[in-house]
Write a structure and sequence with these properties.
The chain is mainly α and about 450 residues long. Helices cover about 40% and strands about 5% of the residues. It has helices spanning about 1-5, 20-30, 35-45, 45-55, 75-85, 90-100, 100-110, 125-135, 140-145, 145-155, 195-205, 215-225, 250-255, 335-345, 370-375, 390-400, 415-425, 440-455, and strands at about 280-290, 295-300, 305-310, 355-360, 380. Helix 5 packs across helix 8, helix 6 packs across helix 7 and helix 11 (about 195-205) packs across helix 12.
Amino acid sequence: MKELTGRSPMKSPGKPSLRRDVERLFWREVAKGLSSEDAAAAVGVSPAAGTRWFRERGGMPTFLINPITGRYLSFEEREVIALLKAQGAGVREIARQTGRDASTISRELRRNAATRGGKLDYRASVAQWKAELMARRPKTAKLVANEQLHDYVQQRLSGQVRHADGTPVTGPQTATWKGRNKPHRQDRRWAQAWSPEQISNRLKLDFPDDESMRISHEAIYQALFVQSRGALQRELVACLRTGRALRVPRSRARQRAGGHVTPEVMISERPAEVEDRAVPGHWEGDLIIGTDRSAIGTIVERVTRFTMLIHLPRMDGYGIEPRTKNGPALAGYGAEAMRDAVAAQMTTLPEQLRCSLTWDRGKELAQHAQLKIDTGISVYFADPHSPWQRGTNENTNGLLRQYFPKGTDLSRWSDQDLQAVAAALNGRPRKTLGWKTPAESLDDQLASLQRDGVATTG
């Protein structure tokens, strides 16, 4: 075979894998914001192949997405060569029809032909596989070749803190890394771990005269995320501040689950009278979240600080039926359950106190249009990452954590328990109300509304 092809025998791959140009198309779709499954379907490969590509490369392509230059034969050209060869065309005839040099065609037919059966048989798929295999440059990663640099990076990335005498500081026992993003409510690695950027720049200070002790922060990230690098332990991704095991393409990160928030329901469209707290009946709301997907709804009136708590019991089948993607929200605060619960709570109020409701951008209030029809209350949504636009509700949620601590299961509280907590909170004197209680302030507002109504009628 070496005499026939001009290169050493190559192990047969069996069925040739998917071509590199198909994977390039896959990464272009990912760059548009598609998931790995949708991107795989768009280029005509299985979802399993797309998921494998995404995980092996750490969520980002490690080669150029742009197609290769015309210097190299493409798969389409190899298909033409294979077709002409099967029709009996010679090397120079194939070269004329493909616009390539005859020596290029001769070398291609010899080097990249299939060798099964002891003879050369040119097939485009096998030729493409061989060309891509030989084009790989097995460059040794810097962290693999330089042991001192590897140890320096790994120690600081893992947060191996030491005393002044060099003895290690014993840290807390953390849960075993499971290879997933952001372990839910588990202890993370030591906070003393350095970021890749800190490590990269600190090397210049610790080793000013040793040019071999240099590495970019991008190389450290690739050593963690890309499986083929193999330089650093994969579980060290748990030491990163984000804790994610895969990178997130920028276009996908920009996609926010906010399709229910349209321009006409943004907080900028809210009436100006809401801001000065002169008129009662404008509310702010959100959820406080507990463990095991439990939650309690909170609604606060802006003028009186009167608080109402919404009981969100779990739906039938929670914990029994397996969780399905895009399946019913059995945790109790899906869009439909939230709409019914808020409507039931708001309809207990007089119509004059149902002016507006400002909510966070969570999808639990995705059916706000139907809620407005049911209750007559206008719903507005705060801007992204702007909790101060619902400052009254945020402050109230902080007070409620005295009764519902973080990291606890909130589903164990009954509706009667929530009403008791709301009564306790509404019975506290508040400095901002002149040491009146929210319940007293609400009573004063209701009395004022009744007097104004009687005077207007008379």
